[in-house]
Amino acid sequence: MDGITEIRAGVHLVHGSDTNWVILTEGDAVTLVDTGYPGDRDRLLASLAAVGRRPEDLAAILITHAHADHLGSARYLGETHDVPVLMHPLEVPHARREMLQQISPGTILANSWRPGVLPWALRVLRVGGLKDVSVPQAAKFPEPLDVPGRPVPVHTPGHTDGHCAYHLPEAGVLITGDALISAHPTSRTRGPQLLPRMFHHDWAGAVAALDDLGGLDADVLLPGHGPAHHGSAAEAVERARPA
């Protein structure tokens, strides 16, 4: 299947519609980190099949943050296959849509003159970016988190209040979500970076969260947008830090 890369044994990065998700396998069980847009569902299910797993094998769905491009199929999978949808406690009300910390249509319109913004916005509409992706069953993850892949949550508030990265210490992998990315259709640059400022709920917090990522022991970063970055977390953070 195109767009799926085995990063380490049991760790797969999958590219969807301008966004990524990660499949962690351990024996027959699976942890899914994020779920793409609603329109990515067929690709999401195909990616599970490509690594020899079924939705019925899911032990947990972990969410980095509750934006539509990461939460798209979480409710469907959770309800259909009785899978817990877990995230940082501060992100639970966001996923339930008791509140919203996501770029508004007005902000997108105001920035439509910027390179790449309008084509990206049109793709968002096509893949269901404005659909209801609320997850009523969203729950906070237990501590310690004991799911396939053994990810360790790293709270990185800024992009949203409850944004969380996931560190895989044994594999030397860091799933960064949108706390640090490597490319985006609205960005002119490639390599480790922050999303453009308009996407962050708290810009100062997003910048500060880089410090929490830079001290982790990882030599591969799996971002929410863009390709995997091979290099230390500290090096990636220094490249991403705004001047």
Task: For this entry, give a set of tags.
12 strands; 243 residues; seven-stranded mixed sheet; 8 helices; single chain; alpha/beta
Strand content: 15-25%
Radius of gyration: 16 Å
Low-confidence stretches: none
Overall pLDDT, averaged?
Answer: 97
Helix fraction by DSSP (H/I, runs of at least 4)? 25-40%
Tell me the strand order in the biggest sheet: 1-2-3-4-5-6-7
Please work out how many helical segments DSSP would assign: 8
What is the quaternary state of this protein?
single chain
Q: Tell me the total number of β-strands.
A: 12
Main β sheet profile = 7 strands, mixed
| Overall spatial form | globular
Termini separation comes to: 39 Å
Element order: H for helix, E for strand: EEEEHEHHEHHHEEEEHEEH
Question: SS-based structural class?
Answer: alpha/beta
Pfam family, one: Lactamase_B
InterPro entries: Metallo-B-lactamas (IPR001279), NDM-1-like (IPR050855), RibonucZ/Hydroxyglut_hydro (IPR036866)
Organism: Actinomadura keratinilytica
Protein name: MBL fold metallo-hydrolase
